[in-house]
User: Fold these one by one.
Assistant:
Number 1:
Amino acid sequence: MDHTYEDQNIFAKILRGEIPNATVLETEHSLAFNDISPQAPAHVLVIPKGPYVCFDHFAAAASDAEIADFTRAVGEVCRLAGVAADGYRLIANAGRDGVQDVPHLHVHVLGGRRLGRMLSPVS
Ligand code: 5GP
């Protein structure tokens, strides 16, 4: 998959302050904000501040400090969103088959209701 970063994507604009967001958490290397079109009572997006397209790009190219910060930010958002006790789902869509709409790595933190099974079994 092409990891060329496209800096006009909507999350790049949020990071530059060109578009507002409902911030849940900001750390040195990460930002978390409510999804504009929530698919569960709690639906928060966590993104690294660096220019990473998807998870495998981030895992290969980010510094240890960025990876630690992002991982801890996701965990903290689970607590801040109030879903840590009853459970939640993390989703990181990537590329064509993952049906990723915004080409800047983001982890969806979803919870606040029973979410159902993840996917249909392959027949
Ligand atoms: P993807 O399909 O790429 O995994 O998810 C992109 C997510 O970004 C979607 O859940 C969509 O609702 C959310 N989104 C798209 N544009 C905006 C925006 O301008 N602000 C916020 N907060 N979320 C957005």
Number 2:
Amino acid sequence: MEQDKILIIDMGSTRNTYIAREIRELGVFTEIHAHDMTREELSKITNIKGIILNGGENRVVDGVQIRASEALLNAGVPVLSVDHEGSAPWPQEEEARIDKLQSFVFNTCKAEANWNMDNFIAEQVAQLRAQVGDGKVLLALSGGVDSSVVAALLIKAIGPQLTCVHVNHGLLRKGEPEEVVHVFREEMGANLIYVDAVDRFLDKLAGVADPEKKRMIIGAEFIRVFEDEARSLKDVKFLAQGTIYPDIIESGTKTVKAVKSHHNVGGLPEDLDFELVEPLKMLFKDEVRECGLALGLPRSMVFRQPFPGPGLGVRCIGAITRDRLEAVRESDAILREEFAKAGLEGKVWQYFTVVPDVKSVGVRDHKRSFEWPVVLRAVNTVDAMTATVERVPYEVLEIITHRITHEVAGVNRVLYDLTPKPAGTIEWE
Ligand code: XMP
């Protein structure tokens, strides 16, 4: 069944996402679009029931007032103008605003509350088939929530035409590459190319201590490895990406620019000229998770905690060495295991270990040892801009300390990082 849609037109408001979200919570699908939509762009969107011209503080760009295109004004559906052309702003009080939205969406537009995940998936599957035809699609599958859900959706829509590439850069958590290969190749029957690029990355990173240089090397090398794979596959026309709504929506009129500039795939050379496939670009993070569950992905994958692109590379402080990297990986696995046992897994936003490049004296087997410390970090946050430290029960910290000092080679000390953000950041680099 096709979902009814309300279009939110960015007329310079910083609250487009907010309004989009509130209408979705009423059960009606929303999309945010630019003020200059053409007739052709509009015609590609089915079941538009109404349009909200959402004006706001950024209505004037480079001295020119933003105006809605003729196509939008003559779309033949009800138009609600807010804070625009003399119209009133949204009511400040939440209740009054929702009343206004509800009345427009259901009474004026006669939209039905038929936005749900099954309808969304059915519609995306149809759209993907229409976009891709019998073409081949390539996807870099990191195993993160977004790329995993894109993979699952594409497998459902165009199965054998999809090739997933999973690059193991050596900086993933323990068991992660194996889980990606198992879930997608064995359980979901995907074409999956597993690239063992561990040596390639670690060689490039050898001796590099500066965090930003490390990030740059990891990012650039990733593109190179992916590019090599893309070239070896023939006739691939499409590149799928796990772009989600918050990635493309900044705020206000930036939306317009952000949506457009997003169509240049960062870093890939021009001769690899793919058309983008971004089926999640209209979903918020929690909706992406819901979509993943509906498509049968394991909960461990769908509710995975955030993990930085450069992975354990920024948790092995300074120049990365293989032995210290293993200490990060093994201690992280122990931390995750013990947090799961203690029921902290779904409760704490992000938790991990860090191994700084210092050594301290300890005692092992009645002899003096000179080994690394492991730092435990467990934080809660809403938007990652600020964070508080989780009050992990002391007994859990003791168990983790015992296990890490006994099971992880080269580690004789465990510390708990008590620093909120600010003063510290969440990561150590
Ligand atoms: P900070 O350390 O800035 O981290 O407080 C905030 C959030 O961002 C994640 N993070 C990254 N994610 N690439 C990423 O994809 C990166 O280079 C990166 N650095 C930090 C971090 O894990 C936390 O969730």
